[in-house]
Amino acid sequence: MDERGKKYLLKEDREFQTDLGIIKKEQMERATIGDTIITHLDKEFKVIKPTVNDFIDLMERRCSILIQKDIGTVLARTGLGAGDRVIDAGTGAGAIALNFGNVVGDKGQVYTYEIREDFAEIAKRNIDNFGIKNIEVKNQDIKEGIDEEEIDLVFLDLPKPFEIFEDVKKALRLGGWLAVYAPYIDQAEVAYRIAKKLDFRDLTILETLEREMEIRPQGTRPKTRMVGHSGYLVFCS
Amino acid sequence: MDERGKKYLLKEDREFQTDLGIIKKEQMERATIGDTIITHLDKEFKVIKPTVNDFIDLMERRCSILIQKDIGTVLARTGLGAGDRVIDAGTGAGAIALNFGNVVGDKGQVYTYEIREDFAEIAKRNIDNFGIKNIEVKNQDIKEGIDEEEIDLVFLDLPKPFEIFEDVKKALRLGGWLAVYAPYIDQAEVAYRIAKKLDFRDLTILETLEREMEIRPQGTRPKTRMVGHSGYLVFCS
Amino acid sequence: MDERGKKYLLKEDREFQTDLGIIKKEQMERATIGDTIITHLDKEFKVIKPTVNDFIDLMERRCSILIQKDIGTVLARTGLGAGDRVIDAGTGAGAIALNFGNVVGDKGQVYTYEIREDFAEIAKRNIDNFGIKNIEVKNQDIKEGIDEEEIDLVFLDLPKPFEIFEDVKKALRLGGWLAVYAPYIDQAEVAYRIAKKLDFRDLTILETLEREMEIRPQGTRPKTRMVGHSGYLVFCS
Amino acid sequence: MDERGKKYLLKEDREFQTDLGIIKKEQMERATIGDTIITHLDKEFKVIKPTVNDFIDLMERRCSILIQKDIGTVLARTGLGAGDRVIDAGTGAGAIALNFGNVVGDKGQVYTYEIREDFAEIAKRNIDNFGIKNIEVKNQDIKEGIDEEEIDLVFLDLPKPFEIFEDVKKALRLGGWLAVYAPYIDQAEVAYRIAKKLDFRDLTILETLEREMEIRPQGTRPKTRMVGHSGYLVFCS
């Protein structure tokens, strides 16, 4: 983080150049969290512990990522916690897997399925860079089967998630949650009906609207522009 | 969980009576997660691992608790994860501390400040019952000082949270988050202005609206009734 | 209107009794707008000109009525004005016809179709009582044909509105609007697709959420409870 | 309206050029509503009766105009109808006055106050062009007094509307409405408190969110972008 509060993602093994000056390779290698580094222009950088969001903002992405408010709804509604075991498909650039990995910690585990090899590669790189060990990227089609059992949460962001609900049911522990992200109401409806047929319980379809308030000298008001929709979330257990 | 999916919170050390029959004290003591227990009326109960939400729904409460959607916004926006250290005030019945404790896990720690002794007692009981070891209930006024340092997240649900922002700033690690719950816009405004004066960064005031969709034979629609407002959340780091 | 601001709907031809005293039949007959009437308990009542909303709030109803916010959306989006000609089906208790009649005035005309005789009777009584002359209640099934032409607005609150879109198209003037109220998204979708097939233009599906703010001594906030959904409105011209 | 449904605002007294060909001055002068005009490129134009919205979309504007959803809320909540008498300040380009004029019709009257001469001129031109006779543009400061009495609706879009609430109270008929547009919550609060002090009744602060649904081949969903806020509306009578 520089003196202005701007954050950077640094690779240890090379020189780092910014408009506030150069940080040498040797400085990078020695730096640990809490250190202050001085550039050749005499500007200060602090080495901070990044949150998972800091990292996701700066990491390599080639596909859209689930927005924060929807991740929040999944975390809060399923009560995901440290030590839990999660399945996630498809991986994309790995953002949601990183969110889950961040929560479940060392004693938990995330298995993330991605059918496309290029995305799986990006995701692996991102996860390595974040330095988390509890996420296994599986470059395989989740429709061909789920290898894991006794899972606390299965999260699906797939075009036809309902095709694998029977497998999901077998993979979940008793009381575990299935959460489905569906941009279209039609997908959410089909997911709901099939989950019901398969005797899932606690079926809920949610949508979240987030408003940001602006504090200006003239007064306070919600922002003029807002995200009108990101997707529906279908939950069942 | 009974055959209908209804969940119960069981105390190991006594007989348990339901409309589906009695479970004896000996049965209760021997039961572990995954077991099936048969009542004297020949009904099946499954022993399941409760999520933090299952527990909070059934635990003892004497005050209102933060609603799930707001907890989700806090978790998602601050990127809280396993191993993090959190301060929370006021504790109330302990629900929000349990949510944080559930996420930060064994390697993390939650310090929860509660000025009222009766609430602190309820919270301690609830935390013991849930069986989590990483939450310290502190029956003291957070306005008299914060004992901890290098904290990842401070969450305040107090009438005048801004009175302690200077102390919060000292307690937070570089890059750590302050999150404030404020039911009234006026509180959120003051919190925002004071945080700005104290050079907090990334100031944001958010409000979340959650809609539930109904699937009926006639068609699909949002539910007629919804929660119109729970509170504003002020974030800064 | 009594001294507390409470409004009453008075029938001229009989004595009126309230908790603030009795108003005699003779007083009722003589009263005109602007008058002050004194009850036998010496309380004041003012005779006021009711708005269409005052009237609808107090009139006889046996069915649910479209909520105000949706009427507002129809009025604003179609630009309905004095002198316009409107078709409305089904009538119900006549509330929406009264709203339209109130706007189109003496030079305009509302034709309201209602298949059920009992509703048509209630609607006629309500319209007579409000004292408006520009609404014709037609106790006939609009599916059997629309008698009118050169209509500025057709408003449909029917289970399958799309069955009569071809007839509606013939009834509308060039540039006139069709507005459909649909509680379920499925109805709105079908209406949209059929309108598109029939070459209607300016197709839009809207939904409105209304929030009320509370001013309390402690501060300002949106109300805790709000209407989560009343219906979708499909517009085309 | 051309063959594609695009609408144009035509001046009778001159030749009209489009990418679909030229319409001669003589053709323009002869045209009446319902006519079809052929351009020199043999394209058809229909002469249609514009709604007030068609007109406002195409008229001259130099300032922002109140958005449709808010006009709808004012119309619906106050029950404005043909024959009513309205005061509106400030006029701006005249859009809201046109909306009111359109509803109150020949037997009603709109008095619109505008302090700036340039806006008052634009508004007069727009109103003349729309061809409505019931709007009087008053190029005077409404703070210096209200000339009218027995008004059904006063609508204020001013920075400090509350400064003239006493005058408004005198101008309103018993049971008439004051509606205030306030972009900031702070203005709405002050308006509310002062209205209360002045014994206005039925005080309400509303805010409306409008969502548009998208029908795509893949499915149905709310649009990604929406207007997050336009303003609060304060009502009292």
For this structure, what is the CATH class of the largest domain in chain A?
Alpha Beta
Structural class of chain A, by secondary structure, is alpha/beta
| Continuous helix count of chain A | 7
Distance between the termini of chain A: 42 Å
Keywords (chains A, B, C, D): Methyltransferase, S-adenosyl-L-methionine, Transferase, tRNA processing
InterPro entries (chains A, B, C, D): SAM-dependent_MTases_sf (IPR029063), TRM61_C (IPR049470), tRNA_MeTrfase_Gcd14 (IPR014816)
Domain tRNA (adenine(58)-N(1))-methyltransferase catalytic subunit TRM61 C-terminal (chains A, B, C, D): 47-217
Organism (chains A, B, C, D): Methanobrevibacter ruminantium (strain ATCC 35063 / DSM 1093 / JCM 13430 / OCM 146 / M1) (Methanobacterium ruminantium)
Can you characterise this structure?
Four copies of one chain form a homotetramer. Chain A folds into two domains: 1-49, Vcp-like ATPase, Chain A, domain 2, CATH 3.10.330; 54-236, Vaccinia Virus protein VP39 (Rossmann fold, 3-Layer(aba) Sandwich). An eight-stranded mixed β-sheet of chain A has the order 7-6-5-8-9-13-10-11. In chain A, helix 5 (117-130) links the parallel strand 6 and strand 7 (135-138). Chain A starts with 15 loop residues before the first strand and ends with a strand. The first copy, chain A, is of the alpha/beta class and 237 residues long. Chain A is 29% helix and 29% strand. Chains in contact: A-B, A-D, B-C, C-D. Strand 10 of chain A pairs antiparallel with strand 10 (204-216) of chain B, so a sheet runs across the interface.
